[in-house]
Amino acid sequence: SRRLIALGMEVDAIRRRPQPGEAREAGVREVAPPKHLTRLAAEADFLVCTATATDEARGMINASTFHAMKPSAFVINVARGAVINEPALIAALRNGLIAGAGLDVFAQEPVDLRSPLLRMENVIATPHVAGVTRQSYAGIARAIADNVERLRSGERLRFCVNPDASPSG
C-alpha cells in the first residue's frame, strides 16, 4: 500500500481480522473485513488482489464483485489465481462490466495457452513474476539455509508443502 499511496492513490484494504488503528498505522483510508469487499469494490478504480489462497479467499472476487464495480475499473491479481472466479472474470471483461485486468496468476498454472484471458485486448498477462525481487531471492536463500540447519539438527522443516513428510515430521 505504501507504493500506491506514494503514487497519490487513496487506499482501502480488506483483511480477515482488521485491528483497531490499523488503517491509521498503514496510512490507508480504511481496513475492513471481507464482508465489505463488494462495497469497497464499487468505489475502486483499481482492485488489487494480494490475498493468500485460503478456503475463505477462494473465489472471493466473483460475479457479485464485478457487477458492483465501475465499468472504468481494473482488477489486478498478483496473489493466487484461485482468489478470482475466472469464468466470472472472463464474463465481466467480455460484457464491459470492468475495463480490464492485469493478471500475474491464473486458476490453473501453467496457464492453458487457449485461455480466453490470454487473447483479450483488455488483459495484460505476466508469467507469475510479480513477487520476484532481490529481496524475495534473499529471503528464499535464508529460508533454504535455515531448513538445511533444521534438517541437520533434526528439527521440523519450515514452509513445507507436506509437513508430515518432513524428516523430523
Structural description of this entry:
This protein has 169 residues and is α/β, with parallel strands linked by helices. 31% of the residues lie in helices and 12% in strands. The chain contains 6 helices and 6 strands, in the order αβαβαβαβαββα. Strands 3-4-5-6 form a 4-stranded parallel sheet, with no helix packed on it. Strand 1 (12-14), helix 2 (22-26) and strand 2 (30-32) form a beta-alpha-beta unit. It starts with a helix and ends in a 16-residue tail after the last helix.
Average pLDDT value? 89
CA-CA gap between termini: 37 Å
Biggest β-sheet description: 4 strands, parallel
- The helix content is 25-40%
Number of β-strand runs: 6
Low-confidence stretches: none
Task: State the order of secondary-structure elements, H for helix, E for strand.
Answer: HEHEHEHEHEEH
What overall form do the CA principal axes indicate? Answer: globular
Number of helices: 6
